[in-house]
Write a structure and sequence with these properties.
By secondary structure, this protein is an all-alpha fold. The protein has twelve helices and two strands; from the N terminus they run H-H-H-H-H-H-H-H-H-H-E-E-H-H.
């Protein structure tokens, strides 16, 4: 990453703020937690934190990490802009013009890379702005179409519970399938847009259970940073799949294998309803009728513009018939 490779040594490290944004006045132990976490992240270190039950560890982790993240991204942009505008190069007092020319070339190369990084950041911001504008136009239509969402949500929760139980009962044994998923060239779909690589930083939160992840998402929503960040929940195919003919399979391994098989097919596919009855023919392309670029693009926009837990994303995918 350019910024990490060329961060100027003269830039002092970020210091924790005098007070952290928090939904309520934090306790001393929460303040100490966030302050130490901020310094660990800024220093690029590995931190192990422990706190008693009921002391608000999740909220302290969220507010401490996101405070550092937003401040760091802001400082990163300032440093990049400063480097782009810095046209001066200190020449040595001696007459070694060759060495001075080399320094100027190196400095100009850093300025060029900084400019490219800034352009990527601005391009991403413009894309999000366009998506927001497009989503706002569709908002009223979505409201009219989602009047029955309350009842659908309860149906979805029951299905999610069954999927999680099935996944837990299967245990391990899917490593080969996961490797195949990430390294198989046969899965490529020509219908999908290939976006430029996103080099922006991300924060990953991992937990042992889906219920803990859902709780974490709720904590982010009620934190002061709920409108400042994008959050996407990740889970296995057994939980996230919206294709009825695939999700009804008896095991996690069978679901993974069927999904990969459909991803490799280039023949025409048939969409199925909840009772596994054929509904309509889809256009030629990927074998899974739910894995279409038009539908997944809509689902992607929904995912990055608001904070959703796993149940929200599955429900949206079922409604839009999108993977």
């Amino acid at each position: 990453h350019f910024y990490k490779r060329h961060q100027m040594a003269s830039v002092p490290p970020l210091q924790p703020p005098d007070s952290f944004k928090f939904p309520f006045p934090p306790y001393d132990i929460q303040e100490q937690f966030m302050r130490e976490l901020f310094q660990v992240l800024e220093g690029g270190k590995l931190g192990i934190f422990e706190s008693p039950t009921g002391t608000g560890k999740s909220l302290s982790l969220i507010c401490g990490a996101l405070t550092w993240f937003l401040e760091s991204e802001k400082q990163k942009r300032i440093n990049l802009e400063k480097l782009v505008n810095d046209k001066s190069v200190d020449d040595d007092d001696d007459d070694d013009w060759f060495a001075n020319a080399g320094k100027k070339q190196e400095h100009n190369q850093k300025r060029l890379e900084a400019k490219e990084e800034l352009e990527r950041i601005k391009s991403k911001e413009e894309k999000l702005s366009k998506i927001k504008a497009r989503r706002s136009q569709l908002k009223q239509t979505d409201i009219e179409q989602n009047k029955d969402e309350f009842n659908e949500l309860f149906k979805e929760v029951k299905w999610m519970q069954k999927a999680v139980q099935r996944e837990m009962s299967q245990g391990s044994g899917d490593e080969d399938i996961l490797v195949e998923e990430y390294f198989s060239d046969e899965e490529a779909d020509d219908d999908f847009e290939v976006d430029e690589e996103d080099t922006s930083r991300r924060i990953f939160f991992c937990s042992r259970t889906h219920s803990q992840l859902s709780q974490f998402v709720r904590e982010v929503k009620k934190s002061p940073f709920g409108s400042d960040v994008s959050l996407v929940s990740l889970a296995s195919r057994a939980v996230m799949c919206v294709n009825p003919s695939v999700k009804k399979l008896p095991s996690q391994a069978a679901i993974n294998e069927k999904c990969l098989e459909l991803g490799r097919k280039k023949s025409k596919a048939t969409a199925l309803d909840d009772d596994s009855n054929p509904t309509k023919k889809s256009k030629s392309g990927c074998g899974c009728p739910y894995n279409k670029s038009t539908g997944t693009a809509v689902l992607r926009d929904q995912a990055v513009l608001a904070i959703h837990d796993i149940e929200d994303l599955v429900l949206a995918g079922r409604k839009t018939h999108s993977c």
